[in-house]
């Protein structure tokens, strides 16, 4: 192909998930001629921007959880409000349609932003040929072509890890995407993996009436979270009806007679479990297979992650990798978004790096879990002198009025300087409350600063204020 036939851009972004679309939009805002290539399509074969996060991940999960919470509330919580409801039923098809409508609306918003900023949106498979060129194979199987740019941003996201012991058939043994598109509530459901994704899925289907069992290979529950918060979560979720089996390593899963028989081992031996559906939620892997031609010499590690420096630069000049493709931070959408903005501004000559130490983490269960900074166990392992303040949500008037009193706020500060080192929340709207904690730590606040900050009353955020007050005069 001759030089004249190659379309040129300032920036090519491969992938239109949170990292990719954020980077593309910011590049265009900064005056860069930008193209974004994405291959996600819906059941009708139409482009659906937003990646796994929007189409088969967090947004879809949150939408279904909201529906499930309403259903559970009608069945179990209305009488105390003096409200009577009879003959309540679930229409899963309509519930899924509502979820899909939300996805469609958000995807259209991304497409509208692309159009507004004159971003070339190309529905195709993309392959990096070298540090300047990308081969595109349209999803409609029309002619393959090549485009080029001064800068290329890789943002192809991640996909579920396959387990050889539980091969996906998308009928009885399903992946996490299919788990958000079931057409009926399983009577009995098992989930391999009690991490963030497994817990979020469990919360949905348990509330809709499925007997839900989580099989977690690790002996500890939510190892990344602060262990005091994790213990509280274990208690709450167990009381809600989730069956959490820790130290349970699945060795086989076989379908037969419209059931799945799952065999697993724990400290007491080998066990068999028969369920209607088995969800495999055992982690995610970067989408780097076929991302680059061999001759491009893009450096990957043994697990398929793209090697980058602290500025998200790969070993190829002008090529960046962001989001789930790298090990710079956890696989969370807002990490990818911030990297997308950071790389776009870097290309434009600006430098506003991501503070990976203060990335908030959120588990969108009910109640939610959110945290920022260090855990108590990590700080004690480092030998840091710390002081801890906690405050139960049930002590706030707002939580009592809402009937959402489960949970607590935990603040960890340095025992000598009073600097905030970690803030951990379990409770309703923890994902919203954590924003204040992130801001406080970003501006190097002390626990006394939080205690002296006037919080509106009655609000859930008063629990943060209460936890900070318990730290005053603590040594």
From TrEMBL:
Record-level Gene Ontology MF annotations: dihydrolipoyl dehydrogenase (NADH) activity; flavin adenine dinucleotide binding
Domain of life of the native organism: Bacteria
Residue stretches making up the Pyridine nucleotide-disulphide oxidoreductase dimerisation domain: 360-467
Co-factor binding comment: Binds 1 FAD per subunit.
Record-annotated active site: 457 (proton acceptor)
Signal sequence residues: none
Localization annotation: Cytoplasm
Positions with a binding annotation for NAD(+): 193-200, 216, 283
Gene3D superfamilies tied to this protein: 3.30.390.30, FAD/NAD(P)-binding domain (3.50.50.60)
UniProt cofactor(s): FAD
Location (main, coarse): cytoplasm
Name listed for the protein in its UniProt record: Dihydrolipoyl dehydrogenase
Protein species of origin: Methylobacter tundripaludum (strain ATCC BAA-1195 / DSM 17260 / SV96)
Upper classification of the organism: Bacteria, Pseudomonadati, Pseudomonadota, Gammaproteobacteria, Methylococcales
